Amino acid sequence: MKCNANQNWCGEHEIVYSEDDNHYCVFHAPKDKKGISNEDFNKLVFQLIDKNRKKKDVLLLKGTIFPDAISFEQYNYDNQISIDINFSEAHFHNEVSFHGTHFTGGAYFDHATFHANAHLDNVNFNAMTTFTGAQFKQEVHFDDSNFMNNAVFCDTIFNNKADFKNAIFTDSVDFSSSHFKNGVKFKKAEFKSDCHFSKSHFSGKIDFSSINSNPIYFSNATFHKASFVNPNMSQHIYNGANFGGSSLMNLDLSNTDLQNSKGIIFDNTYIKNAKISRNARDPWSILRRNYSGTLLIFHLVLLIAFIMPYFGKTLLWVGINQSQESLTRSVESIRIRAENINSNEAREFVLGELSKITPCLAPECKEHTVAEVIIGLDKESKIWILVVLLIVYNIFRTILTRFIGPLCDEESRHYTTPPLGSYNPFSEGYKKLLPLHHMSQVLFLVSIVTFLWHAWVWSTAILWLPVK
User: Fold this and answer.
1) Is residue 212 exposed (0-12), middle (13-18) or buried (19+ Cβ within 10 Å)?
2) Per-residue pLDDT at 289 exceeds 70
3) What range does the domain containing 249 cover?
4) For 129, 133, 155, 220, which has the most beta carbons within 10 A of its beta carbon?
């Protein structure tokens, strides 16, 4: 009988467990069906390593189920694993330690699952090393390890803390599409060649402090509510990354590529020479784009266009007010003189005609202040509400421009974005301005509708022209 683990390397080993016509050798039997102690099982593994080293043959341990703790620390500098060894799809059900191990040949852990803490610290990987699709369910330690050749961690899942402190990557390393679910530490790590975290997912504390590297590629990576321990994340590539509301407080992002990134919230962030999309959608970029530069000039033109008609109306109605007061005084003066006319009939006629003259030259008049007429309160319709909203809109824009202008000036001098702050109106930062901006955006739409309505009214007004 052959082992049903679909592995070709274990055919010479006897079957130790069968269930429903499925037969398994000692290496692929479930962890509690080995038929031998964990100590004896580990000895079998070490015997295979030693045997294949003598034969200088690749060792396949693919799909092996390690039932309990195991340590490979004996394979140190003086007793190196000098052959390629393949742990792909293996399951380590208890702690595993490769502390101080030297892999002279390739080490392959693709799709392996580490159910307990994994210690791969102080390990020398001298040849190709792959952990593609591997899963670390508990803590994993790669600190002080040395990767002398290509290292691949694509699609690797780190469910708990991952520690790469002081690790050295001499050749390229690829963490693309990996998941760091509970923080990762690369403190003082060295990346001497290309390093990719493209499409990787980060949560928790991210520590890249004091690293030595070329630009690291975080293109299309996701930082979900992550916090950066190290303030210096400069020179790296974040094109298309999603920061998902992660805190960028006091972070150094100078000389980085942030184009097409999403979820950014700048907070006293250093961005000298950073590449930021022209239409970036982060809150600070939206504020500075709308209330400074070209759009500021555009809105100033709109403000002038809004003010001028009302300024003209004000002058017109003030002039009419003065004319009405002059007319009223003249009528009163004539009335006083008319009372001295000797002829009763003539006097009554003149006084009767004078009584018909009103300040508005209409049969009936109603008093209104100039402000009421300009706003439209003299009319029965509710058009005055639109006018009031336009006034509020321009007040909001004035307040926003007043506060954002100095923040933009300070940013241009020091290359540091303003702090985020809070919604407290007395706090520092720009967060308190966001509600005003959102309301002004709504009022801007109202202003556009009002303009179009006025344009329609003006363009459909009837004029009487002479016939040529």
Assistant:
1) exposed
2) yes
3) 56-290
4) 129
